[in-house]
Amino acid sequence: MNREYSAITSNPTETLNKLNTLDILTEMTPKPRKHGVKKRNIVLKIQTYERLQRYLLELIQRRGDPRITFDEAINALLDEHEERR
Q: What is the Cα–Cα distance from 36 to 46, expressed in whole angstroms?
């Protein structure tokens, strides 16, 4: 069975228990990087992309810097999330 889907079983209750205990997160490992790789592409749903774009514009206004990248916007969101924890 594919590693990412190993928490999904034919028994729905067992699957939910695994997901609720975050077993699936411990089983999912990042894709190994080839030597020298510095970027990775991701796919976003259009609605998510549009929300991120609005946040990027808000961040540009807050910081007063029009050269903020999507990568910096995502890092700002992750930083805010980590500060709340």
A: 30
